[in-house]
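Structure in, sequence out. Go:
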């Protein structure tokens, strides 16, 4: 059934005549009369009967009137919800990342997004390394991912958010035994607290690990636990300069030689994306993103 026929029917009911309804709809009276006949033929029952100069509803017409008004009301409500999502007055954004980027850049990006779009709910999923991000996006469990670009991320779209400089954060007692900067070879003898499931996506490249990763003393997927252990002297960890400054101000931070960096990227499925995802990409400066 065509929706305009339902609107025409309700207009005739509300105005009491085809002439008045046609005038309100800005269509000709014959066109409206034909539309009502088409609707009655589709329904298999007359909807109006003439009483004097007015049209009144038949019993079938009264039943259809109630159903038609519910349909139009539900449609109006649905349109309002769609408009709200499109205009970012409602909706949600599913974001996936892993421990390496839990603070930098995720916190700042989400904070800025929520300031700009306070009615959008952001759900952040934690996963194991870049492959976990790629899988979550491909399976549709999230719409935007924050990850380093390692391995095969096709057919996802990606854009670089820039390079992170990675540092060795370590207790003072351990730092006293090491030069500044610390060579990668020397790091292989440093007890590390890292997330092995995210290697190399957490900045720990293979040349920082001893044979069989014997210098990894704690395999931790929880950044807050890792940082507490570093503060308590259990070992060192690899973090971005921004995370070291904000989360580990009381420990020693050393550069790695040669310098250690990683690319941070936003990833999405192929368009079309939700309005919330589009807005997140724009906020991150990723309007011109591509493969």
């Amino acid at each position: 059934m065509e929706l305009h026929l339902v609107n025409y029917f309700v207009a005739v009911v509300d105005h009491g005549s085809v002439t008045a309804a046609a005038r309100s709809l800005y269509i000709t009276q014959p066109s409206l009369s034909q539309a009502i006949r088409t609707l009655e033929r589709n329904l298999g029952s007359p909807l109006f009967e003439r009483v004097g100069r007015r049209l009144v509803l038949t019993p079938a017409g009264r039943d259809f009137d109630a159903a038609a008004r519910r349909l139009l009301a539900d449609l109006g409500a649905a349109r309002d919800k769609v408009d709200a999502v499109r205009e970012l007055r409602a909706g949600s954004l599913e974001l996936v990342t892993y421990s390496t980027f839990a603070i930098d850049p995720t916190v700042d990006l989400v904070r800025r997004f929520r300031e700009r779009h306070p009615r959008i709910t952001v759900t952040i999923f934690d996963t194991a390394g870049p492959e976990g991000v790629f899988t979550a996006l491909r399976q549709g469990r999230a719409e935007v991912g924050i990850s380093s670009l390692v391995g095969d991320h096709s057919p996802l779209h990606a854009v670089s958010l820039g390079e992170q400089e990675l540092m060795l954060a370590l207790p003072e007692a351990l730092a006293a035994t090491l030069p500044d900067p610390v060579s990668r070879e020397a790091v292989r003898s440093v007890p590390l607290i890292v997330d092995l499931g995210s290697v190399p996506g957490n900045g720990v490249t293979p040349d920082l690990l001893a044979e069989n990763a014997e210098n990894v003393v704690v395999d931790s997927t929880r950044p807050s636990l890792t940082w507490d252990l570093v503060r308590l002297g259990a070992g060192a960890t690899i973090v971005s300069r921004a995370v070291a400054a904000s989360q580990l101000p009381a420990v020693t931070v050393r550069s790695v030689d040669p310098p250690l960096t990683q690319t941070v990227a936003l990833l999405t499925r192929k368009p079309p994306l939700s309005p919330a995802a589009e807005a997140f990409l724009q906020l991150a400066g990723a309007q011109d993103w591509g493969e």
